[in-house]
Amino acid sequence: MKTLIRNAALGLAMVLATGLAHAKDVQLLNVSYDPTREFYAEVNQKFAAQWKQQTGETLNIRASHGGSGKQARAVIDGLEADVVTLALAADIDAIATNGKLLPANWQTRLPHNSAPYTSTIVFLVRKGNPKQIRDWADLVKPGVGVITPNPKTSGGARWNYLAAWAWASQEYRDGDKVVDYLTRLFKNVPVLDTGARGATTTFVERGIGDVLLAWENEALLTLSDADTRDKFEIVVPSLSIKAEPPVAWVDKNVDRHGTRKVAEAYLRYLYTPEGQRLAAKHGYRPAEPDKVPAAELSRFPNVKQVTIDSAFGGWKKAQAEHFADGGFFDKIYRPR
């Protein structure tokens, strides 16, 4: 009998110990946009190790990637993201407005309007630049295949579109001519992928098109890959746009999951010297470049850029005018 009692007590102790061990495992879901896969894979690994050292908790960070607009819709529809790291503020605004999952002033909670890194839009062309694509005007020439994703689902595609619009606005100074330019540009687009990574695959792996309108980080990734670096080159246009991908913790979800503290720490980690160096390593321009050695910033060329606020009056106005149903994009693009 004593043996049975002792064994039962031992078993109960093991169950309790196992329960305590599981209690130390924390789950976090980062819902992100298409081209951040490699960046957040390394961020997740390093932050989880730091969190373990600081708290003793084992942190399991899962990531979901896709077109930014599509990802925002998934969160609104019930994908329980603890944090969102999307391509543009309009998509997180949609989560706040339509999903009521975080406050409308979410962008004020972290530095630099909650954008720990920036990017811009460049052209990726095939080695030797056989079509001699130098600037936006070359994209509407007959026979030039332009690869860009769908602005309805992709944040990167919206930055591409707005960069083209900004250039045309300065070049033509006439609204009708700007619309005509964008119409001709999209006539040269043979396929609209749902996200930026899909568009890169179409251009790089499937060999479709002559030029890819790309996030700078996505173009740099292509040139850093041993299998593709000798097949492509980057062209910096005369004018581009400052792309500011923001981040936020999703209040209703973190409170439901009990993950507010770790979710906030995870996003603040992106602003640390290590987080900023990782951003630069993966082709993003650090929001606080003074935290990164100058040698690690030398890969980023000087690019003349407009901002979403200066050229378009902010994302709320740009989203409504250009990408909402019946907006300019719907008038410009006619599916084949």
TrEMBL record:
Gene3D superfamilies: Periplasmic binding protein-like II
Localization per Swiss-Prot or TrEMBL: Periplasm
UniProt keyword terms in alphabetical order: Periplasm, Signal, Transport
Pfam families hit by this protein: SBP_bac_11
Signal peptide: 1-23
Highest taxon of the lineage: Bacteria
Single GO BP term: sulfate transmembrane transport
Molecular functions per Gene Ontology: molecular carrier activity; sulfur compound binding
Record CDD domains: PBP2_CysP
Keyword Signal among record annotations: yes
Main location: periplasm
A single cellular component GO annotation: periplasmic space
Family affiliation: Belongs to the prokaryotic sulfate-binding protein family.
Protein name, per record: Sulfate ABC transporter substrate-binding protein
